[in-house]
Automatic annotation (TrEMBL):
Top-level taxon: Bacteria
Protein name as it appears in the record: Putative Penicillin-binding protein
Topology of this chain in the membrane: Single-pass membrane protein
GO cellular component: plasma membrane
Primary residence: membrane
A GO MF term: penicillin binding
Ranges where the Penicillin-binding protein dimerisation domain occurs: 58-358
Subcellular location: Cell membrane; Membrane
Biological processes per GO annotation: cell wall organization; peptidoglycan biosynthetic process; regulation of cell shape
Record bears the keyword Cell membrane: yes
Entry keyword set: Cell membrane, Cell shape, Cell wall biogenesis/degradation, Membrane, Peptidoglycan synthesis, Transmembrane, Transmembrane helix
Amino acid sequence: MIVKGLKKKRTISRYLGLNIIMLIIFFVIISKLIYIQVYKNEEYKEKADISSTRFISEKAPRGKIYDSEGNILATNIQTYALTYTNAEESEKYFYRTMDSVFKILSDNGEKFQDDLLLKIDSNSKFYYEFKSSDAEVRKSVELRFKRDRGLNENIEKRLYGNKKEDFTDEEVAKVDEELLKISSQDVFYELVKIYNIYELINSEPTKEEQKAFDDMSGKEMTELLLQKYSIYDIRNYMVIKDAIKMQSFKGYRAVNISSNIKKDTAFIIYQKLNDLPGIDVTLEPIRYYPYNNLASAAIGYVSSIDSSNKKNYELRGYDVSSDLIGVSGIESAFENELKGDKGGTTVKVNSKGRVTEELFKLESYPGNDVHLTIDKRVQYAAQEAMKDTLERIRQEGQIGATRGAAVAIEANTGRIIAMVSYPDYNPNLFSVPGSLTPEETQKYFSPDLDSFGKEYIAKTNAAGGLNGVFPLNEETGLREDKYDIYPRSFFNYATQGLIPPGSVFKPLTSIIGLQEGVITPNEIIVDRGEFKEHPDVLGEGFAPQCMIYTTSRSTHGATDLRKALQVSCNYYYYEVGYRLYMKNGANIGALDSIAKYAWKFGLGVDPESKQNASTGLEVNENFGQTYNFESWKNRFIPSVMFQLVDYLKTGNYNGCVYFVPLDIEKSESDSEELMDAKKALKDKITTALGKVGTKEQRRDTDNFAKELEPDIKNIMKVSDKYKEEVKAYEVKNGKKVNLDDEVESVAEAIARFTIDDKTTEIISAAQIVYDSIGQSMNAFTPVQIANYMATLVNGGTRYKVHMVDKITSPTGEVMQEFKPEVLDTINISPDNVQAIKEGMYGVNTDPANGVAYQCFGNFPFKVGGKTGTADFSTEGTEVGQYGFLGRQPYGNYLSFAPLENPKLVVFTTVYDGKKGSSAATIARAIYESYFKDELLKMDPNYAAKSASFKKYVVDCPLKDNKPKDDVDKTKDKAQ
């Protein structure tokens, strides 16, 4: 029997096991690759494409702005810009790259683009660089800045946990309240941490080091960085990091590091691009104003978009982080026409941020061109004459003469030929964002009124002191220019400055008096110095004076219309105002006898009408109002309350009603009950005054007093201050106070004050008498005043004021043309107009009118003029406007030429000029430039006889800059 041997047990080789494991790993890898490349191919391809794809935006050139002769006032030039694109390698070597870039820029005198709101001054103090002094705007900008950088997130988490729902308005307000508590210094620390600026000292930290950095506060991290770097160096890196983050909201886009760099600087950087990952040199258009300050108030300027307007512009397709917009003047008013259509290129980039492939290109398209009615030659003469005139007036002792305006308008078209607002500015300063020096930023956007005020008070001896002249805003802690003393470059004094007209209003009163038949050109009115006439209508104590009587106790004697205009006789016009009132019914409606005409001349609008309050001008403007009953009443009532508060504090009404002093002034320390009681009393008084001039006007003093008693009693009962006054009164007089008696006395005083005094004042005919010489509430812009005179001298046609002639496409096609447009017509007698012209001609030929006579007394052709010395109103000052504020009257001068067939009207004003005739030199320069050819035809040697003609016209340095000269070339910056 054969027995088979047992099978030997086989063992698995170690190599076999290793091979099996390797096969399994290989299988997993292959499976993963198949999964990625086959099943997830599209998803990962898209991610890879996105991470390596960039959109290089191409700015569209803005449309050009031309003067009336085709000279380019605003255009674009190609300049070099330095950009940074965030990519893998550029991010890795960010700090090394930035160190090199900062050094190159510094060595070549270039600035990097610094748009970060958070700044550090020379004393290492942190602050926000706001471009507004308005408290609400500052607050909005600060909140937007902090929210955009995520500083709200920790606050929201702390207050409301991980809330998923939208925050309510109350919750948002609470977060905002907490955000505003974060100081500028703490914001800096937060940004150091948010932007991982610790990488500056350790770009590749270990896990332990990273954890240590993560646990650090922003302040601790900053202190660590300060051991090697200055606070300014840290901020420089932060500026770029911040720009990258803000731009990242728009996708992968390059950020500007420096704009408008010199050609040589661009070449140096270009040579080193291989060592500067992410850096590139590009061409971009920037706004350029060939004539610098010329017509800056009319043209305006461009600037970056304020963060407070971020949402508004984003909805309109703007890139808030890089786009510029017009922020004033024509640049702003015609933003939609001037801005072009942006283009750009979608490209692929490598790890260094270099372009490797162009995927798609969208061409940009320029904006439309705007052609103005302004003549650059006349504009130059006007601006230079304004500057020289202000300097002369200051040399004569009026050191506050630092602001002024001039408007030249065609009498028969409404076209603006020149518009001056002084001080002006160079709009080129604002074309490159972040390029302003700290000093320039302060000057234009946040003036140091403390330093300015001290210097101003020292020169003027203003009795009001710093707090009186430049009071502090309790909310912001900043000083305010309440009395319009600081010269503001961005304020258009020609279109926004509301000034009292003074005697330049008298030609209007003249034409109204003539048209209404209350005077004739040759009728004599005897000036007796003090106007004490008609006490039965105007009151026994009413006695305004003619200026000549005030200054020398003399009179103008027998005066007709022409003489009244020539010598500016107030007495004559007081009588005209009175006669207009009587002729039209001597009632409430008659108080508007002048206003009804003034409105048709463009000096205000009827408050009860729906008429547009505008001259028609394209740029932003204010629109002043003439005296009229309704507007005067509404303006007067608030001042009544201030007077009443003061009256009640004295405990004495006109020496006939006595009571314990009562304080009804609003105070934040008042209890809610006391606040309500004071408000209830004031509301009843305001309501009663509001009914003056209507069928519901209160005339019953006793009944009105009874209605006030409950509110007065409530105040007395809950006011601790009143109770203290009662105690003091009892101690002083040795007798107890009866509360009911006090209530009756105070009620009587208030009722008599309201109905007997203030109601009478509101309806008094004295107001139309003051109105007749341009006083009362009259205040208009220079544009309004110029247009009123144009309407008068052209025979009664009021044209829409405009300074845009047409809009054309980039290829020259006319898109829109602006023809003269009639807004109103007034049927006035040519004979009456002629009489006024003759009277105004007499102004310029009367040696007593100083500078006006020197300018036009022997001018080659006849020029009509009217001076106006208008007081600055400062209600509430104790010492008076001149002593308290150091201010002087406005120097207004209104004129037209030639006399027989007026073509041009000019109005000039000098703030604190003191005399109206002082501004006549500006008008002369304008006429000489506008009528240059006619003057030389009349006298070929005129230039040798007129210093102003030679200086402002013949020697004008401005060369023509027509389109053929506008070569689109790269700017080689020489500065």
